[in-house]
Amino acid sequence: MPSGRSTKIAVIGSGLMGSALARAFAAAGHEVAVWNRTPGKARAVGGGTLAFESLTEAVSGRELVVVSLSNYAAFAELVASAPVASALAGTTVVQLTSGSPADARGGLEWAKAHGVDYLDAAILAFPGFVATDYATVFYAGSRATFDRHLEALQAIAKNSVYVDEKIGSAATLDCAILEAFYGGTLAVLHAAAMCKAEGLDPKAFLAQKNSFLGLISVTADAAQGMIESNDFSGDQCSLNTHVAALEHIVRLSTDARISSRFPKELLENYRRALTAGLGEKELPAVFSTLKQD
Ligand code: NAP
Hints:
Keywords: Oxidoreductase, Signal. This is NAD(P)-dependent oxidoreductase. The protein has about 290 residues and is of the alpha/beta class. It has 2 domains: about 10-170, Rossmann fold; about 170-290, N-(1-d-carboxylethyl)-l-norvaline Dehydrogenase, domain 2, CATH 1.10.1040.10. The protein has helices at about 15-25, 40-45, 55-60, 70-80, 80-90, 100-115, 145-155, 170-195, 200-205, 210-230, 240-255, 260-275; strands spanning about 10, 30-35, 50, 65, 90-95, 115-125, 135-140, 160-165. An 8-stranded mixed beta sheet has the order 3-2-1-4-5-6-7-8, with helices on both faces. The model has no long low-confidence stretch (mean pLDDT about 95).
């Protein structure tokens, strides 16, 4: 049941994510205008939203303008139109398009120059999870602007997390989480391929997910203190020993004739730490070798 104050919101972009966001705002009782480059998609959003053909009209008189486009360049193209930019003046733009911290900084610069309040945000959810307990949105920018809109923003994710005043901080956190996700997922898929190639049902490996997720969790916890203190010594397992284990993975992949590119890349990264004289340190010591050459 909708509760709280109704806010005039515009959602720019009626792709998979934008449509889900717009419907969630409308379901929470907000007055939602939608606009999309391909107008049919905006009309198809439904859920009590109102589709506009003109972007200027869609954003005029709105308190909150939520943007969900493929990339920041698409947003820059849209707001290059003087009528659109002047209709946005006085609104708060919440940029939910995924991007890099540099993209976020560019967005803030544009907003400052056009009298727009600006939050950069990153959503950690598939569209089907929007407005459920599985959705998290990270926000960066002015704390006061975030606090002012928090109640309305919670329509898309109760778990709305303010990260930092630094405008790039939500994008940084998003990229960090996504790297762990994509890298970890590639590792899981490569491991399943190794099992299959060796005649072991990948189910046997996947059923052990709690063991490798647990190891990653323990390592992340240990890494936190070690990174803080810049001291990677310990008595659990040396990098020399870890590198030997990685060599087995490369050999298995090569013998079983599956791609060894991923484990070789891992091995190269860990070996670099040995070359740097860190062989007797614990695994997180690799962190100190990751600065760009
Ligand atoms: P999508 O379904 O492909 O939608 C992309 C949207 O961007 C469409 O509305 C498209 O308009 C619009 N667009 C692209 N280029 C444009 C341009 N030059 N000018 C105007 N509009 C343009 O993608 P999505 O899944 O909704 O993703 C949208 C954003 O959410 C992305 O930044 C994505 O990284 C982020 N995100 C998505 C998910 C997810 O699971 N889907 C999760 C987290 C974050 P047309 O319809 O006219 O092409």
